[in-house]
């Protein structure tokens, strides 16, 4: 097996440069690459394009990159939880592209799977369809969407092995497996890194082929966005 | 006039045995609390779970287990976890039977606007576009009017449209409505105590009232 | 949870009628729906369209349906192991559509995922591209392929629960998960059927939503096509 | 002239550390036996496995574990299992570094024909079309001539084409060839004891011989 280990987040992300296009895993604050984001905010990067379902909150997740003004363009499905975003966007400092969540997921999946374009019904009749090719199949209208790929994918899993195989936990899986396949360089951080052979091949969610670098993060805050409990 | 909880209770009565259901954020989320125990139904969370359970006890929250509203949840027995592409494959592929969404506006031909907008800025489109474009039966749960008193049941949507001709039924604090194939909100039921005149005055789009309109069966107002 | 149990293969397949379009899981003889196929050969069905990666061998798998002349059309990627096929095909009794294996997999995946058409590079310059739309994306040529869906999908898993959740074993997974999602009615047979809640939600390969009927098969021959051993 | 095993041995020398490789049926399968132990490489089986191990001992065959040739196999440590759509996503998406395939014909501009044909009937296309259309470096392993003595290295393929301008290198019993950008089989190495005249006479397409052509480094002929 191929050994994908690197020492830590700093080493894993050291060649991410100004202007890079990044895919960042997670849904809200669930399953985000905390360590890689922390490593990035200690550098003075500019003009990043960040593709992620959300933009974090002001003091956690992608919000930290926003605060440091490292991001030039955000591609997301929902950014409603982040105030900093609104400030920079209104000031014209930030570009935003909103993509329906399912289309975002499928475009990233297509990027990893070598499908340059596909038809989807999502967005027909809405502003999302503007400027896009529309075609009828079997009596329904669909619009053409392109793949999404990136220079780097920063993802987070629960367990991983040295060969890059990953297992996620709960709904922290979300966009991470899709992004793993769509990054030219995919950097996976895990809570527990084990030798190749210790994970059951039948339980692996992301095969190691998609992962170029893997490391075990030190501490995971795993902040909860909306604690909701029953009586 | 129904409370949000009562709107959710009323919608719960529409649910049939064996259905897979996606609940949007807001009133739709409350529907889960009112599905009768004898029904076998499964709730999907489009981030990647089939089988949403009740909210956890306060000592049992798990940051790795949230719903589409980023709220902590639990899983019922027989749940399955998957990634977001698979979650939307289920939606787009016609495997979800019912989608229950909130809305800002619905038009008389069944268009829906439900994007999150704040001070003129669209802050998100989320998963709604995929849901409204799917084959799932689309139920809308919302207040009949905006806070300023203006109607949300319009001739045409004024806000950006999420989906066209997709709404199946609308459940508001005033009543239950279906969308007629030729256009128009057909009143099916009145909320307890609500008079036709009130519904008429608060519905901007074409309202169709045919015959006797029954008052909603009374239910637990708890 | 929704209970998807039926008594056995006969009950599960009783409404499959003449002319039905079937997806059949498996790769070669590995992971094929043995029990459902056995149930079908005891009926006098005609004009079936069978979509499967292979056509079995003469006395096992889809070969059994061929021998009983139940199949009018075969859609597969490779049928080289089946002599009966050649006889019927040469006699003009059988239609054959060969599809590249990856395109077959992706078309079925698209059927389940509500993607009516997508672009793929596989087949450019070959007979497979004949009559298909060809388009350039980012300097490379791709051809447009349509989704595949079926009236019934007959699939085989290792373990399943009453809610229809499935776990496969080894490479017996192959086409089964894709087909599960692309059948209007998906019939899953398993070696071990357990109550809902006994399978770890994080280990499930096919979520129960895709399965309409599930039963535990009685005996599994699991014939090996090519026993190859090392000294 | 090389045996099938020796062709496989020669190809194995092309493999570099850290590569993901797909081996086709026939001679390519044999390559696995000759990859040096010190290299970290992973073999993919396109039915749904990364990490093919040696063939099993006779008392250890598992019907649920077969390769793309439907042969019983084993898994190495660190393997992963997945479905066939994911397997081809890896191929199509450019994640496989090298594909080694058998062929019936190769043309001087790098086209390949390798469909299974029997008595005029195409019996299968398999996964080759996806592999040849991928970004994987394509190595062809085959005998230089058909059994009737006719060349398999042609100006144009006569059989149905699997892929166009995709072959990177060809390894036959007579030598190693690359495809020149402007077309033509460039001879890189001769098999031990094989003379240029034999290669010339058995290559129907344009053969390019420039300078001294080294004889293949001798290797274990076992």
Secondary structure blueprint with pairings:
The complex is a heterotetramer, with two copies of chain A (231 residues) and two copies of chain B (222 residues).
Chain A: H1 9-13, E1 21-24, H2 34-41, E2 48-51, H3 62-67, E3 71-76, H4 83-90, E4 95-98, H5 101-113, E5 117-120, E6 134-137, E7 140-146, E8 150-161, E9 166-167, H6 176-182, E10 183-194, E11 213-216
Parallel strand pairs in A: 1-2, 1-8, 2-3, 3-4, 8-10, 10-11
Antiparallel strand pairs in A: 5-7, 6-7, 8-9
Helix pairs in contact in A: 5-6
Chain B: H1 4-12, E1 20-23, H2 27-31, E2 42-45, E3 49-52, E4 75-81, H3 84-92, E5 98-101, E6 105-107, E7 112-113, E8 116-118, E9 121-124, H4 128-132, E10 137-141, E11 153-154, E12 167-171, E13 175-179, E14 185-190, H5 196-202, E15 207-208
Parallel strand pairs in B: 1-2, 1-5, 5-10, 6-11, 10-12, 14-15
Antiparallel strand pairs in B: 2-3, 3-4, 6-7, 8-9, 12-13, 13-14
Q: What are the defining features of this structure?
A:
heterotetramer; A: 231 residues; alpha/beta; Glutaconate Coenzyme A-transferase; 8-stranded mixed beta sheet; 3-stranded antiparallel beta sheet; 6 helices; 11 strands; 20% helix; globular; B: 222 residues; 10-stranded mixed beta sheet; 3-stranded mixed beta sheet; 5 helices; 27% strand
Describe the protein in words.
The complex is a heterotetramer, with 2 copies of chain A (231 residues) and 2 copies of chain B (222 residues). Chain A contains 6 helices and 11 strands. Chain A is of the alpha/beta class. Chain A has a single domain, classed as 3-Layer(aba) Sandwich (Glutaconate Coenzyme A-transferase), CATH 3.40.1080.10. In chain A, the strands form 2 sheets. In chain A, strands 1, 2, 3, 4, 8, 9, 10 and 11 form an 8-stranded mixed sheet that branches. In chain A, α5 (101-113) packs across α6. The longest helix of chain A has 13 residues, at 101-113. Chain A is globular, with a radius of gyration of 18 Å. The mean pLDDT of chain A is 96. With 222 residues, chain B is α/β, with parallel strands linked by helices. Chain B has a domain at 4-30 and 96-208: 3-Layer(aba) Sandwich (Glutaconate Coenzyme A-transferase), CATH 3.40.1080. Helix content of chain B is 16%, strand content 27%. Chain B has 5 helices and 15 strands. Chain B has helices spanning 4-12, 27-31, 84-92, 128-132, 196-202, and strands at residues 20-23, 42-45, 49-52, 75-81, 98-101, 105-107, 112-113, 116-118, 121-124, 137-141, 153-154, 167-171, 175-179, 185-190, 207-208. In chain B, the strands form 3 sheets. A 10-stranded mixed sheet of chain B has the order 4-3-2-1-5-10-12-13-14-15. Chain B has a 3-stranded mixed sheet with strand order 7-6-11, with no helix packed on it. In chain B, β12 (167-171) and β13 form a beta hairpin. The longest helix of chain B has 9 residues, at 4-12. Chains in contact: A-B, A-C, A-D, B-C, C-D. Chains A and B meet through α4, α5 and α6 of A and α3, β9 and α4 of B.
